[in-house]
Amino acid sequence: MQEKSVLFICFIALSTAIYIAQEDCPPNEEYLLCGSPCPFNCTNPDGQVQCSDDCIEGCFCKTGYLRNDNGTCVSIAECGGQDDICDANEEFLSCGTACPGTCKQPDPIVCELACSMGCFCKAGYVRDTASGQCVTLDKCPTVKCPNENEVWDVCNGLCEPSCADQEPVCAFSCTGGCICGPGLLRNATGECVTPEKCGNITTNPLTEHLNAISKFLDVKFLNI
């Protein structure tokens, strides 16, 4: 009973300390128990600095605000010059995705949770890494595929019909890549051939059954 009382008193003391600290934070700031030791600021809005992994306690600028040269947390617009940094079809974000879409990979499948600050392509645009500009998908440069009978597909690069699976189930993710041209299938050697040249594809009955179940589950999952 005495141990519980001590823990309760400690909890109340900690809560009171946090509350008092929050009240002491200047406007546009918030109290954090574990904030970055290298917070973003107007001078370095992109945060491209070496910083330790250790966090610190104190008052930090709220999301959407940066610390200016006077030590005051101001909006990004008040920093001055941020809008001029961004090019056409870009916008300045205080917490943008760490894996922005590009012409080759418009919709990255895996991305770390951390966000970054800087200029990002606006909604409906992707980054053309060749020019560095933000463009719509239809304006992405055409990629010349190295193999015969292949064409570039901006979204189905990882999912194309083949001799072994003429009706693949594709995920919603969008990844560019070279696929066989219309009416052609990828054979076992990686060539693009007509369905007639696929030959007789023999598979184990158990494998066919498992593939059918897998497709059914994929379709159910994609429709959720």
From TrEMBL:
Recorded superkingdom: Eukaryota
A GO molecular-function descriptor: serine-type endopeptidase inhibitor activity
All residue ranges annotated as the TIL domain in the record: 25-79, 86-140, 147-198
Stored InterPro entries: Ser_inhib-like_sf (IPR036084), SerProtInhib-TIL_Domain (IPR051368), TIL_dom (IPR002919)
CDD domains reported for this sequence: TIL (cd19941)
Database matches in Gene3D superfamilies: Laminin
Pfam families: TIL (PF01826)
Signal peptide span: 1-17
Keywords of the record: Disulfide bond, Protease inhibitor, Serine protease inhibitor, Signal
PANTHER family: ACCESSORY GLAND PROTEIN ACP62F-RELATED, RIDDLE
Similarity-based family: Belongs to the serine protease inhibitor-like (TIL domain-containing) family.
Stated name of the protein: TIL domain-containing protein
